[in-house]
Fold each of these.
Amino acid sequence: MENILNLSLDELKKWMTKNGESAFRAKQVIDWIYKGILVFDDMKNIPKSVKEKLQNHFVIGIPKVIDEYKSNDDSTRKLLLSLEDDNIIECVIMRYHHGLSICISTQVGCRMGCKFCASTIDGRVRNLEAGEMIGEILAAQNLMKERISNVVLMGSGEPLDNFDNVIKFLNLANSDYGLNIGQRHITLSTCGIVPKIKELADLNMQITLAISLHAYNNEKRKEVMPIANKYSLNELLDVCREYIEKTGRRITFEYALIKDVNDNKEEARCLAELLKGMICHVNLIPVNEIKENTFKRSDMTRVKEFANVLNSRNIETTIRREMGADINAACGQLRRSYLSTQKNEKGCFYGGDDYGCWQCKKD
């Protein structure tokens, strides 16, 4: 069965025509879905014959919420979601003064190997389809009974390692017949896959591109981000300049501050020199601590000193606002905690897939 959320309006119109139905039925069906009607039988203006064809060919692939963590002030909710194949992903809903934002996953797991990230510890299981990413947002809207107005692709997975599906998702999310989320309200975060950033630049989208930088030189970046072994810092910055020139959009550089690793004033001065003259913004993020490594977060005094050095050198810098600190869990931790309690039919711990046991690595 195909997930109907993968289809654009034009694609569903073609399917309707191919199956002997009027093309306008496609818009009616999509309208119902984005109003939160997720059962074909409940779509009141759709003829029974059309409903039967839809039921025989499609599912409305909204992931199931299997666990939910709420902050005490209700500003943040972290959701554990189960997909149609029982794979597990996470998303985070955040309430700001302007409305609701969501941080979504783009893959089940991740293969990029960033040392401070829990999502990548067990590798990548599979890519998410565009419709599954849409499904994360619809699941969140159904839970909150409110519209999601901002999207961040910064959950589990590397978006540019799932390029085609992510681009289709961006177009679907932006479409006026669907979620109608403006491109400037969407942020895509990447560890820095240079050829894919170049492809993204050629598409001239108006999304915000966020680059996970985390070091001012290549050798130090290699220590925390294996991608730096393939694409040098110079290559990355060159393609960032190309991206800015082609799109006219400012780039955000994310900088996770790790105690006694990359958080002193000299590092800040070197980073300012590196980024001098570039249309950019630096977002400082005290690193999330995970049990699988020894990294500790910088204290807030040091974080503020780092920010002051950058701002004093005309590098616009902010410290990421921490929300839901009382339910703090690094990206990927909820999924790993859940998988540690689940067993497949062989008695192995797994994530609902055929990729073997994450604990004993047995197929």
Amino acid sequence: MAESLPHTPSSYHHGNLRSTLVEQGLVLLEGSQQGELSLRELARHVGVSANAAYRHFANKEALLAALAAEGFRRLNAAQIQAAMASPDLKKGFRQSGRAYVQFAQDNPALFRLMFSRLTSGNTTEELSEASQASFQTLQTAVSAVTGVPIDDQQTTVIAMLAWSLVHGLSHLVLDGQLDHHGDKADDLIDQVIAMVQTPGPSR
């Protein structure tokens, strides 16, 4: 199960203000609308001057991109951890899908930010690398489960299908369209994974 983000302010040591701003920005994000989060508010929350915050982020858009990048890193780590918890590849793949949905449930504002127009039109190198790493993890898992070489186009297609289905399921859960307190979401994840676990490349 993916863990939710911490919700307590933390002190920072000289030299790691940027990481502290990101960490506390994630906390504030879950308690506000995405467009309302500001660098000045974050600076006050951390206990530094606005100028200090602006030395690390040129504007709010740069901050949001950094938060989204951290979100992808944490999502990727949660999925890897879930997959590695089982020695069975197919079960691990299923657990990875569940971790994706759980991450969305635990961090709804961050999850929405990661895939919003606020960040899609403001892609930084850090954000691009983090999101690509997350998808590459999925491609690796698909290749292992299906037996299709990772550089085969079919692997990319299957990975896109799996991502689209689980991502859509996550939004249905967040929007209250599914009973996420019961087994319905888990049952659907199992069915989604079964759909993408093909026996291998077509001949």
